[in-house]
Amino acid sequence: MKQETILAQAVIESARMILRPLRTSDVGLVEHYHAEKRLAEMTTTIPHPLPPGAAEQFVGKFLRADGVQFAWAMDASAFGGAELLGVITLDQMDRNQSEIGYWVAPGMWNTGFASEAVNALVDANPLDNCTIFGSVFQDNPGSARVLTNAGFDYLGDAEAFSVARNAKVATWTYLKRVS
Question: What burial letters (b/e) apply to 15-26, b meaning 16+ CB within 10 Å?
C-alpha cells in the first residue's frame, strides 16, 4: 500500500467545515465533481470532458512540496456533511502575495460554503500574505459575490482562457489587503 503524503499546512476550522490538506483519498470525489460540465466551465483549468488521470494529477500537484501551490479540501464530515464539498487554493506569487481559487460541488452551490471557506482562509492567512488576488468569470456573478462579501475590492477587467470552454472568457479581478 502506498504511503499517503500530506503537506504540513494549516488546518482551518469554520462554522460548518474544516479546511484540510487534500489527500489521495479525495481523488474519487474530485473526479466526480470535475466531470460535471457546469463546474468545469466555471474554471480555467478543469477540462471537459475529463480525461483519465486528470483528478489524480490535480490532487497530486498539491501533494508535492513545491511551496508555491496549496489546496484545502472543504470537509464537512465532522459536522454531518460531505467529506469533500469543494476545494480552495492559494497560489503564491512574488512580494508576499497569493491568488485564491475555489470551486464547490454543483449540488452545494448557493449554500454559502464558498463564502465560508474564503472567509476562513483569508482570516487565517496561513501563508502570511499581505495581498490576496482573486479572479472570476464575468458570467459567474455568484463567485464575484463570494469575493466581495469577503471584503475583496474590484480591481479591473481582464480575460482568461478556459480549458473546458476552449475559449478566452472575460473576468473580473479582485484584491484584498490582509496584513
Answer: ebbbbbbbbeeb
> pLDDT tens digits, the chain, 179 residues: what are they?
233 334 468 899 999 999 999 999 999 999 999 999 999 999 999 999 999 999 999 999 999 877 789 999 999 999 999 999 999 999 999 999 999 999 999 999 999 999 999 999 999 999 999 999 999 999 999 999 999 999 999 999 999 999 999 999 999 999 999 97
Does any domain span residue 114? yes
Instruction: Assign residue 59 the CATH number of its domain.
Output: 3.40.630.30
In which domain, by residue range, is 120 found?
Answer: 12-128
Residue holding cell 466526480? 32
Its pTM stands at 0.93
The DSSP call for residue 15 is S
Number of domains in the chain: 1
The answer to whether residue 25 sits within a structural domain is yes
